[in-house]
Amino acid sequence: MQFSTIEDAIGNTPLVALQRIDIDVCRARGNTILAKLEGNNPAGSVKDRPALSMIQRAQERGDIQPGDTLIEPTSGNTGIALAMAAAIKGYRMILIMPEDLSIERAQTMKAFGAELILTPKSGGMEAARDLADAMAAQGKGVILNQFANQDNPRIHYETTGPELWQQTGGTITHFVSAMGTTGTITGVSRFLKEKNPRVQIIGAQPSPGSRIPGIRKWPEEYLPKIYDPSAVDELVSVTQDDAEDMARRMAREEGIFGGISAAGALWVALQINARVNGATIVFVVCDRGDRYLSTGVFPA
Question: Where does pyridoxal 5'-phosphate bind (predicted)?
Answer without folding.
Answer: 77, 180-184, 261
